[in-house]
Specification:
284 residues; alpha+beta; Rossmann fold; Tumour Suppressor Smad4; 8 helices; elongated; kinase; ATP-NAD_kinase_N; NAD/diacylglycerol_kinase_sf; Diacylglycerol kinase family protein; kinase activity
Length: 284
């Protein structure tokens, strides 16, 4: 779902300190473009507490995050915990090394500072789904277990959005394959021995008595979670279901969510929340 952005002229630009350190030039360019096209208040927080204070004082301004995946996730999680996420418009200018902004690829946010900043000014709001766990953690792109499982060729064969992205992709293909997120392809992890109980809306899809290759979960376009359970060796088709809630449980395990390794945990439940947040994306 998309809509015009009535609050586009009033911005709170939260500039992540990591972005200022690792790519000051892109950060400066993004700020200049945003300030030239809108009334912008610039926040330069030094840490999470200052981010929270800036967000709390935003008034009616639309929040724009300049930074990597973690910077965006920090603001989304904060608003989710405050139960303010649904009605708070957000925008994002990804800044960071390519593997650290992989969520931008999933969401459709431009990777270049100028293109992303212009999309903030000229784009339209879309309501997007996400996955929320029992500890108020959020997942925007997707998750998979075990954390070391490689993503599949789905990302490798996805068309590049720009010529610059196509050039960078060749050099960074290995890192992106490992870090961009869960896949819906047929590839499995040969020889893996993951033992997890996988439940979708209370139905047991896999149990501890049978090893798995990989489990991936992502928020589908209609708000349901898309669950894919792979066998430990190549097989014709993985098991695919759609569900409102998904639970993984078993011996201590780690999982990768939005390019971050989480855990170890023994159980975790995610609930798919449709249209849970609003992000400005390029038109068309």
């Amino acid at each position: 779902m998309s809509a015009a952005d009535p609050s586009g002229a009033q911005l709170l630009v939260v500039v992540d300190p990591v972005a200022r350190r690792v790519d000051g030039e892109s950060t400066r360019i993004a700020r200049d473009v945003l300030c030239a096209g809108a009334v912008a208040r610039i926040a330069l927080p030094g840490g999470p507490e200052e981010v929270a204070r800036a967000v709390a004082r935003r008034g009616r301004r639309r929040i724009v995050v300049i930074g990597d995946d973690r910077a965006l996730l920090r603001v989304v999680a904060l608003l989710h915990r405050r139960r303010e996420l649904t009605e708070t418009p957000l925008a994002w200018v990804p800044v960071g090394a390519l593997p650290t902004v992989s969520v931008a690829r999933t969401l459709g946010v431009p990777l270049g500072a100028v293109a992303a900043a212009r999309a903030v000014l000229d784009g339209e709001q879309h309501r997007l789904g996400l996955l929320a766990d029992e500890d108020d953690g959020v997942v925007l792109g997707g998750l998979w277990a075990p954390a070391t499982a490689a993503a599949t060729a789905a990302h490798r064969h996805a068309p590049a959005r720009t010529p610059a992205e196509a050039a960078v992709r060749t050099a960074a293909r290995t890192a992106l394959t490992l870090l961009t997120g869960p896949s819906s392809g047929r590839h499995t992890v040969p020889g893996a021995g993951l033992r997890l109980r996988v439940e979708a809306d209370g139905e047991v899809l896999a149990d501890l008595d049978r090893p798995l290759g990989r489990v991936s979960v992502s928020a589908g376009p209609d708000g349901a979670a898309e669950v894919v359970v792979h066998a430990p060796a190549a097989s014709p088709e993985p098991l695919r279901v759609r569900a409102r809630t998904v639970t993984l449980s078993g011996p201590d395990f780690r999982y990768r969510a939005d390019n971050r390794v989480r855990g170890p945990v023994r159980t975790r439940t995610w609930t798919a929340l449709p249209e849970a947040w609003r992000l400005t994306l390029p038109r068309g």
